[in-house]
Amino acid sequence: MRNMKLAVLGVGLMTMTLATGCAKPPQQEIDGLSAALAAAEESEAPQYAADSWSKAQEANNAVAAEVEAQNNKFALFRSYTKAKELIAAANQASATAQAEAVTGKEAARNDANSALIAVQDSLGQAEGLLADLAACRRTPKDFKKDLEGMRGMYEGYVAQVAGIEDALAAEDFLGAKSQAESLQASVDGLVADLQSGKEKIKC
Question: Would you kindly state where each structural domain of the chain is located, as residue ranges?
Fold first, then answer.
């Protein structure tokens, strides 16, 4: 009877060892997660959904750490249950990053176009002021020289618009917006100078 009990116990331990020892990393799920993260990156999440992209990367790193921790254990004690839970969370984080990237990119496109329109309007205002000053009958000393200098600045600013348009065509919306905002500040300064000059000579 005792020998029979020992035999049954031995079979039970062997069965448990085989069942546990067969635990393997959920490779299919891991591959799916890699694909989800890649899709988020291709959607330009690093640029247009930076916070969500960071969270997705952190979630992916947590999966990798958990899988490695289990791989380093004796086969008898390995379990990938937690890893699968982390994979599900990481997949959700990647999907969120991808969705927000699409939305963020479209918002950036609209912002960049609006910034370009605004700077073009300001350049139109500057052009009108230059025309007013050029037609002014009052011509103080060095007036023509100053006017030529301001016209040169205006033409230089106009030339910069092409760079913004190129950035928009290349879908570098953040870069286009940055260029437009920088140019806007310069044009605003020129407009202020032209208005001030017009007031001083009472044109």
Answer: 16-104, 106-200
pLDDT in tens, 151-191: 999 999 999 999 999 999 999 999 999 999 999 999 999 99
The backbone region for 165, taken as left when phi is positive above 0, alpha when psi lies in -120 to 50, beta otherwise, is alpha
Q: Are 41 and 85 in contact (CB under 8 A)?
A: no
pTM score of the predicted model = 0.78
Instruction: Please give the structure tokens belonging to residue 44.
Output: 């330009």
* Both tokens assigned to 85: 């839970």
At 72, is the secondary structure helix, strand, or coil? coil
Q: Which residues of 2-38 are buried (b: 16+ CB within 10 A; e: fewer)?
A: eeeeeeeeeeeeeeeeeeeeebebbeebbeebeebbe
Burial bucket for residue 50 (CB in 10 Å: 0-12, 13-18, 19+): middle
Rounded percentage of the chain residues whose pLDDT exceeds 70? 89
